[in-house]
Fold this protein.
Amino acid sequence: MEHPAKILVSACLLGQPVRYDGSTKTLAHTHLERWQKEGRIIALCPERAAGLPTPRPAAEIADRENGLAVLEGKGRVMDNTGADVTAAFVAGAQAALALAQANQCQFALLIDGSPSCGSLSVYDGSFTGHKHAGEGVTAALLRQHGVEVFAHTDIDALHTRLQASTLSGTEGP
Ligand code: SF4
């Protein structure tokens, strides 16, 4: 029997209160509910996996950089107290990749805007609420290793992609 493709999902999208301020970003969506029933969902908060507490200071990728630059040692993640938390964010990305590979996740559904999970946009490092196009550290590392990352706002596109991959028989490793 064919096993359905597993999907790595940001824990805060699944109602876990792991965000920096202790809140959730629960995504109530029929696709997500069905994937959960099908046992496809692997939940993770990269920042918590790296040992950061909740609550924790808000953090952004500094200087309008993006997650790829952080992975290449050309960018930093700073929190709003001025602390450099780059190492923790890279460790969280590595934890996410290890979990994705252990569960053969070919896909990820991550909340956009986060310095870890953002896949379309991230805050610009000024802590003034401004975003720019880019991806977080976890999204960048997953993509580097072939995981197809979708923003939570693109859940319908992920659904379409899963259907196409099932039909073509290229759903997962
Ligand atoms: Fe949610 Fe990702 Fe931030 Fe964790 S690191 S709180 S999963 S957006």
